[in-house]
Structure formats: structure tokens, C-alpha cells
Write a structure and sequence with these properties.
Blueprint lengths: L1 H51 L21 H8 L6 H16 L23 H16 L3 E2 L6 H4 L2 H7 L6 E2 L4 H4 L9 E2 L10 H15 L3 E2 L13 H14 L4 H14 L10 H5 L16 E4 L4 H6 L8 H14 L13 H6 L6 H4 L2 H4 L6 H13 L3 E4 L5 H14 L5 E2 L3 H8 L7 H13 L37
Parallel strand pairs: 1-2, 3-4, 5-6, 6-7
Helix pairs in contact: 4-9, 10-17, 17-18
Organism: Cynara cardunculus var. scolymus
Main location: membrane
GO biological process, one term: fucose metabolic process
Length: about 500
């Protein structure tokens, strides 16, 4: 019996081994067939590519890995030139605008220079000024001494002594750290706080819980950035009040900037002897003028520029060496002509032909007058700010621009409801421009005026919005309805 069982088991084992061999042979055969099919397909595709030849009109050139140079073949340039898009719609609107201006004989509408509505809307604040005002509020919250901000030579833009004196009742401000703290490595002891360490909507309790113990331990805390911090409700009344005072009163430009800006505004008004309603707040003693009162000239301030951070977001700038920048710029001019920044006045010929009195600060100031500011972008921006803020009407092209936002805030705070700001509705403008092939100039003009007048009206600062953007609130103004006086004249 045992021998029979052993024989049966031996037979079963042999059958299993044969089954494994058969399965193994089948898998090998399938793999061989698949490999052969792949080789055949590979040879077939290579032969097709070789038969078709190179792509017409385009050559690719391999370069050494250690080369940083980017070349643009002539064939690629020819492809980019191609057929230029037709400009019939643009030319038609330009012709109609010029024709309307040439034949327009009626007098100016009575409401042309009036504010579109009594309660003006605001936009956001200039990053630099906002950071200073925010850190002043934090110093008051933590009952700490504030050191004059060290970025971009604070004293070259603002009057340091006036800043310290004006805020003396609220916080103590010094120009430098005490000697015993100057030798400390703030980063090594953990006293450097960046924007990444603080949430954008962090409440005052966060600073009391996390920043105050660090300050008590190390005796000094260095904030880096701080542009959009401590800006969300709820914020104590006294802190909002302090931020508003700092923004609209404590920060005054240096006499160097005020004198040049006053010259700009004076020349914009054709040397008129009267001062504008905001000139005293913007340029201080340089607003006073002597002589007989001449004919009143009004001007419109138009802000067209992006700030540096907006340029990065919109991909208008690129890095690399000087040679690489030139080649990339040449490539962009060929293939993306509509995205190239305006670097010379020839690109603005159409606009200047319609408005021959359009000028820039470079036109109004002599080379010797503007030379001290050329290497300082922040000081040039300060001149733009004063010239736009003092304008009888201010128009912005980008409502999210920080400089445009700060200008709007000043005009509401000091303007008494008589300083109009034009903030176009981009959606409505896009809808109007889509129909510019058939629209008549009169209809176009009417729709634009209607779009400006029907902008959203904001009567007071909404909850959660910045006090810089919407100063019409009890923390910032005595009279929020008419906005005629600041809450703390000085």
C-alpha cells in the first residue's frame, strides 16, 4: 500500500513539474513575440521619420551644456513675423476719437470736474507706508520701543524727526538700537520674525501670545516685511486710530521731495498762483505762492505703471545676464509685441496725438532737477504720488496698484468730497471694447461716462477692510459722511 501511494505521489509531482515547464515556455514565447513586435514597430517609425525629412521652416540646434547663450534662428524669426493682426478696430476708434475732438464745439459739461458721487471708494495702500503704520501699531500693542525702520534709507524719504515727534504721545521711537544690543546676532538668537511666521489675518492676541514672550526674553525683535499684517478686524479702536494717524499725518516727505513735487504741480497748473486744496498736506511750506492770481488751470493725473512686485507676477521681467536679457527681449518683441513694455514715447504717439498736453515728470523737470532722484525708485514714486494726489481728477488703470490705492485714500481723507477719482470697471470696459467694430463714438463716450458714474458706491469702511483703503470710519475721521476734516488736525 505504501509503495502504491509513493508511486501516485511521484506521478503527481511529475505532472506538476511538466505544468510549470509548459507555463514557463508559454510566458517566454509571449515575451519573445512582444519584443519582436516592439523592434519591428521601432524600425518602422524610424524609417517614417527619416522619409518625412526635417520640419519645414524650423531648425533645432543642440548646444553645449555649459553654454548659457540662447540663440534665435532666422527661420524662427520668420515664423514669428508672419501676418500681423489687423488693426482696423483700433484705427477706427482712434479716427472717431480724433474726429470728435476736432469737431466738438460745445462747452464743457457742468459736472465734468465734479466728483462722480459724494462718497468716494478706496483701494489698497502703498506697501512701504502700510508696513510702517502696521509696525507702529504693533509697538503700541506690545508697549515696546520702535527703532526707525532700516529699509531703503527711511530718512531719505520721510522726515524722521517729525515722525518721532508726532507719535511721541503714543510710542517711544529711537533711531538705532542701544549699544548693548547692536552686537547681537538676531537670527542666531531667534529674534527675526518674517511674514511666513505670522498669518496674514493674525489677531492682536497672536502677538501678545507669541511675539511678546520672545521680546521679553531677547529684549529685541526684528520684523522683516510686515506689509499686510495686523490689518484684519477685529482690531482695538485705539490701534486703528493710531494707524490712521500714522498714515495720514506722521509720515511726511523730506523737503527735497516736497520742493521738487511742488515744482511739478506748479508747472502742471501753468504757473498758477493759487494752491490746490491738498497741496499744503503734500508739500508743506512749498505750497505757498506769491503774485497775482492767474487763470485757473486744471489737470488730470493718470497712473499707468506697475510696481516691481506686480511686474514679477505679470511676467514682464526676467533674470539672467545682460546678454541673455537682450536676447530674450529681442525674442519677445518679435513674438509677443503686445506684451512689450512701453520704453519710449513713440509707442504713445496715438495717445499724445489726441491729448497734446499730456506730459510726464521727465518732461516737466529739467535734467538737473530730476537727476538727484534717478537712482532712487522710491523717491521717484513719491514724486508720482504727490503729482497724482494733487490733481483735480485722478484716473487709475489698475485698481489693485498700491500707489493708486494710496492716492485714492489721501484724496478722500483730505479732499472733502471734492477730489474725484476715476476707477474704471474692467468688466464693463471689456464689454464695450468688444463692440468697437460697430459702435459710434458718441455711443462709446456715453457708455464710458455711464460706466464711471455707476461704479459701486461705498459710504463707510466695510467690516474686515483696511482702514487705509477706506478711511471713512469713526477711527479715522470725525465726520464720515462728508469727510471734510481729519479727526486730529495738527
Amino acid at each position: 500500500m505504501e509503495q502504491k501511494q509513493q508511486q501516485k505521489m511521484h506521478i503527481m509531482m511529475r505532472k506538476k513539474m511538466m505544468g510549470f515547464k509548459i507555463a514557463s515556455n508559454r510566458s517566454r514565447l509571449a515575451f519573445g513575440i512582444l519584443l519582436a513586435f516592439f523592434i519591428v514597430m521601432n524600425f518602422w517609425m524610424i524609417s517614417r521619420i527619416q522619409d518625412s525629412g526635417p520640419v519645414k521652416g524650423l531648425k533645432l540646434r543642440f548646444m553645449k551644456s555649459n553654454s548659457s547663450k540662447i540663440s534665435v534662428p532666422e527661420e524662427l524669426r520668420k515664423i514669428g513675423k508672419g501676418k500681423k493682426p489687423q488693426k482696423t478696430a483700433y484705427a477706427r476708434l482712434l479716427y472717431k476719437a480724433a474726429h470728435a475732438l476736432a469737431e466738438y464745439k460745445s462747452t464743457e459739461p457742468k459736472d465734468l470736474w465734479l466728483e462722480p458721487y459724494h462718497r468716494e471708494t478706496m483701494v489698497t495702500l502703498w506697501l512701504l507706508q502700510m508696513a510702517v503704520c502696521n509696525i507702529v501699531a504693533v509697538a503700541r500693542l506690545l508697549n515696546a520701543t520702535l527703532v526707525i525702520p532700516s529699509f531703503i534709507q527711511f530718512g531719505d524719504i520721510y522726515q524722521e524727526d517729525y515722525f518721532i515727534d508726532y507719535l511721541k504721545p503714543d510710542i517711544r521711537i529711537v533711531k538705532e538700537l542701544p549699544k548693548e544690543l547692536q552686537s547681537l546676532d538676531l537670527e542666531a538668537i531667534g529674534s527675526v520674525v518674517t511674514d511666513a511666521d505670522i498669518g496674514k489675518e493674525a489677531k492682536p492676541s497672536f502677538y501678545l501670545k507669541h511675539i511678546l514672550p520672545l521680546l521679553m526674553k531677547n529684549r529685541v525683535v526684528h520684523f522683516v516685511g510686515f506689509g499686510n499684517r495686523l490689518a484684519s478686524d477685529p482690531i482695538p479702536y485705539h490701534l486703528q486710530r493710531l494707524r490712521c494717524r500714522c498714515n495720514f499725518h506722521a509720515l511726511r516727505f523730506t523737503p527735497k521731495i516736497q520742493a521738487t513735487a511742488a515744482l511739478l504741480v506748479k508747472r502742471m497748473r501753468q504757473n498758477a498762483r493759487h494752491a490746490g486744496s491738498l497741496d499744503e498736506y503734500l508739500v508743506g511750506p512749498f505750497a505757498k505762492r506769491k503774485g497775482k492770481i492767474k487763470k485757473e488751470f486744471r489737470y488730470l493725473g493718470l497712473h499707468l505703471r506697475f510696481e516691481i512686485d506686480m511686474v514679477a507676477h505679470s511676467l514682464c521681467d526676467f533674470g539672467g545676464g545682460e546678454e541673455e536679457k537682450k536676447e530674450l527681449e529681442a525674442y519677445r518683441e518679435v513674438h509677443f509685441p503686445g506684451l512689450v513694455e512701453l520704453k519710449n514715447t513713440t509707442k504713445l504717439t496715438a495717445l499724445t496725438s489726441l491729448f497734446p498736453n499730456m506730459v510726464t515728470k521727465e518732461n516737466l523737470l529739467s535734467s538737473s532737477e530730476i537727476k538727484p532722484f534717478l537712482n532712487f525708485s522710491s523717491q521717484l514714486a513719491a514724486l508720482d504720488f504727490i503729482a497724482c494726489t494733487a490733481a483735480d481728477v485722478f484716473a487709475m488703470t489698475d485698481s489693485g496698484s498700491q500707489l493708486s490705492s494710496l492716492v485714492s485714500g489721501y484724496r478722500v481723507y483730505y479732499g472733502g468730497g471734492k477730489m474725484p477719482t476715476i476707477r474704471p470697471n474692467k468688466r464693463r470696459l471689456a464689454d464695450i471694447f468688444m463692440k468697437n467694430n460697430t459702435i459710434e463714438w458718441k455711443v462709446f463716450e456715453t457708455r464710458i461716462r455711464k460706466a464711471v458714474r455707476q461704479n459701486k458706491r461705498i459710504f463707510a469702511r466695510p467690516v474686515g477692510r483696511s482702514v487705509y483703503r477706506y478711511p471713512r470710519c469713526s477711527e479715522c475721521m470725525c465726520n464720515t459722511q462728508e469727510a471734510t476734516l481729519p479727526f486730529r488736525p495738527r
